[in-house]
Amino acid sequence: MAEPALTGTSVRRPAPAAPQVPDGAPAPAGWRVELRRAFEVVALVGLVVTQPLLDVLGRSPDFFLFHRATSGDVLALVAVVALAPAAAVVLLGAATRLAGVRVRAVAHTAVVGLLLAALAVQVGRHATPLRGVPLLVLAVLVGAGGAVAYRRWSVLGRVLRVAALGPLVFVGLFLFASPASAVVLPRAHAGVDGVAGPGSHPPVVMIVLDELPLVSLLGPDGRIDATRYPNFAELAGGSTWYRNATGVSGWTPYALPAMLTGRYPSTPSAPHYSQYPDNLFTALGGLYDIRAQESITRLCPPSRCDQPVAPEQGLGVLVRESGALLGRIAAPVDSRIDPEESYREQTAAEVGLDAAEPVPADPKFRWDSLNDNQPARFTSFLAGLRPSDRPTLHFLHLLMPHAPWAYLPSGARYDAPDDLPNDGAGWTDLARSRHLAQLGYTDRLVGETLRTLRASGLYDRSLVVLTADHGVSFTRDWQGRGMGAIEHAPGEVAWVPMFVKEPGQRAGRVDDRNWEHVDLLPTIADEVHVRVPWPLDGRSAQQPPRERTEKFFYDRPGERVVLPGGVPARPVPPAPHPLVGTTVGETPSGGTASVAHLGAFDHVDPAAGELPALVWGTVPREVPDGTLLAVAVNGRIGAVVPVVPQDKGGRRFAAFLPDDHLFRAGANRLDIYRVGAGDTLRRLNLS
């Protein structure tokens, strides 16, 4: 039935009533809203977590090589990094909907603000000089402003939803365009065998140490300090010491491939056999058995050699170390965002290896009680130093005396905070002292190698090579191996020890030719009578020296830095304080100090191989910076250190006590004194 026509008036029909939705129940289009919010979270988490973490890891293939990660491990880690944080935030936000639609909207806005604040911390660290609390305040303001803008203008949400494609892009760049892609998706490359020539093919024993400046070994006379490093001095006394030798880069992933290929770094490739198919291992592999112990490279293809000792492996350790790395990336303070800083040689005890050698004759080295402290890679290397019917290459790359520093010269270990500064007033001297102590222990390992070679009969017959891939600067304000250190302290970063003992060589000699580490492969090839069938940048030591005196060095592959040549002089070490080594009698007390691990002195067992040799803590705010503190154990002063500005861990002093003789079994007394005029002492009450 048709409605009657109405003229002259209009009728306003009431709008249909909105459906009543119980508080907390989803609206009919709620899933669309949740999907949009999920995309926004994915975009922000991708910018805060996925991109910076995959960027650092993508430029650090050595991280995966050190942990012997398989392609499956790396792909699983990428999935965790790309999906887990975003999924956790999305699910947590969705759960707030149970408290109501309004609560859900407020919670999502808060999440957007927090993620924007976290992003502001990272951007602010790169774009502004702000650090610490001021940067956090700025980030909070940015996050709050971003949250308000998000609520007010819908365009921000639309931009974020488009940016949700970002994590896919970041993952794609990591897998297909980063240096680490060679580890995840290695391409098959067959290395070229060297050509055996006429002449003998002696055993080759090659040790590459890590982060060892030549100047750390030198005494005041410019020779190896035989008092502190008798075994390095012994090796120098029976080999050719190329005193003007330099590495080609301050970074192992570039330096070591250059050494083993004879080519300068040209591209930022992973130190992997698929990227460097032609190297020392392939050149000798057709003729030699290869027994290789690599650490943060994988240049020896599996067809030529396996890796007898591997560090902790699997997805769990990758996730754990990546989480620690993300903490440094996201922190509002400067930190060394370099995975290599966390690499540590596992000990023989940690991997369950038995001692490889009997107790040595040196009574000063407690090998009998501390053999479990040996790096497992070194223990396995020693065990393999045996004569063979076939020519053999024994290769060891040992992360010693590389940081983290944990060894005293005796081989005893000590604990230290992971975030202890290496630069700045007081901290640089502490870092150098810890480095030199670990170098003293490395000297013991060199001595054990020489002893084992002689006991096995290999020493006279072998070509023995010992060097380091790069050095490190301990110059204040320029500590490390980056471009600033290269410019201000090249003698500490570029120059490294280089010893070559030819078969049958008895007398030592010094050769000051302009040696660069691209010369290593051609020199070894000439010594073992193998022709390398690819073009080389290096020059064999059997050829006339190169004419130029300048050094070629690469902070980045393909970007040559030219350094002036010449053997560097040893930096003048700080004079020891006259109080060090003295015995303290009764002194007045006054003032306080807080020591982080005071209880460690209550039960000391030197035979167990661990000593509380690093003491750190703080003093009251009113104690001026520069005030000297004397640290004594059992009444004898082992170190005098300055009070310094508080670091991010709240510490104002740290003292290193490398002398084992300070300690005794059982309870030990730790005293800290404030040093006054005329070296007067006032004992501080410790807590």
UniProtKB/TrEMBL annotation:
InterPro entries: Alkaline_phosphatase_core_sf (IPR017850), GAG_Ulvan_Degrading_Sulfatases (IPR052701), Sulfatase_N (IPR000917). SUPFAM superfamilies: Alkaline phosphatase-like. Keywords: Membrane, Transmembrane, Transmembrane helix. Residues 378-526 form the Sulfatase N-terminal domain. The lineage of its organism: Bacteria, Bacillati, Actinomycetota, Actinomycetes, Micromonosporales. It comes from the Bacteria. This is Sulfatase. PANTHER family: SULFATASE (PTHR43751), SULFATASE N-TERMINAL DOMAIN-CONTAINING PROTEIN (PTHR43751:SF3).
